[in-house]
Amino acid sequence: MAERLSLTFFASRLLPTGKALLPHFQLKQPHQLPLNSLSSFSTISRRRPVSLSQSLQRKGSIVRSYAGSPVSVTSFASDPDQLKKAREDIRQLLKTTFCHPIMVRLGWHDAGTYNKNIEEWPQRGGANGSLRFEIELKHAANAGLVNALKLLQPIKEKYSGVTYADLFQLASATAIEEAGGPKIPMKYGRVDANGPDQCPEEGRLPDAGPPSPADHLRDVFYRMGLNDKDIVALSGAHTLGRSRPERSGWGKPETKYTKDGPGAPGGQSWTVQWLKFDNSYFKDIKEKRDEDLLVLPTDAVLFEDPSFKEYAEKYASDQDAFFKDYAEAHAKLSNLGAKFDPPEGFSVDEEPPATTEKFVAASYSTEGSKKA
Known about the structure:
The structure is a single chain. This protein is mainly alpha-helical. About 35% of the residues lie in helices and about 5% in strands. The chain is built from 14 helices and 6 strands. It has helices at about 50-55, 80-95, 100-110, 135, 145-160, 165-180, 215-225, 230-235, 245-250, 280-285, 295-300, 305-315, 320-335, 365-370, and strands at about 40, 60-65, 70, 75, 240-245, 270. It has a two-stranded antiparallel sheet with strand order 1-4. It has a two-stranded antiparallel ribbon with strand order 2-3. Strands 5-6 form a two-stranded antiparallel ribbon. Helix 2 crosses helix 5 (about 145-160) and helix 2 crosses helix 6.
């Protein structure tokens, strides 16, 4: 099920998405939801009983006890324990479906609609889970993302105490890490948009082949509050995934690196090992050594624009520097436009992450390289 990662949301910009959308991606009405799927969850000590009125209060509210003393209630948009369990399920999903690229793209496209010039939430766009609604899912830039929602929906139904906004960003960051990339310093507690009327208008995501690629990238990413370093670092995530011409209008239908999958075969990748997160994107774009590897106008400009080139050259020669800057940019992107509950957000990584074996790209890519 591996999909191409749009640069930053790039390659699936030009063709309209298909009509096959699952009805359960529509927001259920409040009376249809179980109590534990509501957006705010009280943190209650098991050793200390609390009243029903206390347990149902939202963040920041004050409950008066019978004695008249105020009781402050702490609540979260997502349940931290359920988030941790959902992350384990996502890891298993990645191992069996190789869907790393489309999960990264899903998180990016939900967050990438942010407009820093709009103060109101959710009108400002960003990471609010609105991509689950059909009206936004049908934006041309989101072609194919219904497949990511299909994969995540069983996890969402299993962990109803996790918001869509958090789930999309959790899946995106976990996919990077499981593909061998850096640990992303994530925080959670994002509140969901309530309905399709709160989706952003079409046209906020980048195009793959604009007339002036550098100007276009800056117009889009500066609107989000990001800078040139962020643009180039995030572009490096194109090391994962493929572009499919039937969805984006870009790339070959098949290459020697994609004809055998895994997942649905076909498309054109930016790198040989397109399920391994490393700095090969920058190396391959710089060398342009293989006609079976994709180079979009928005890729090539990274080594043509003087400001972009400074970072692209650095990342091509220094993977550690790329990983550091990428982790920071990804975390920044994942927070754009989000409304957090609690306002400061929370981490599910209180303990330092254990050292784990890095993802090794499937042997198909290595074999494909040898055959080439």
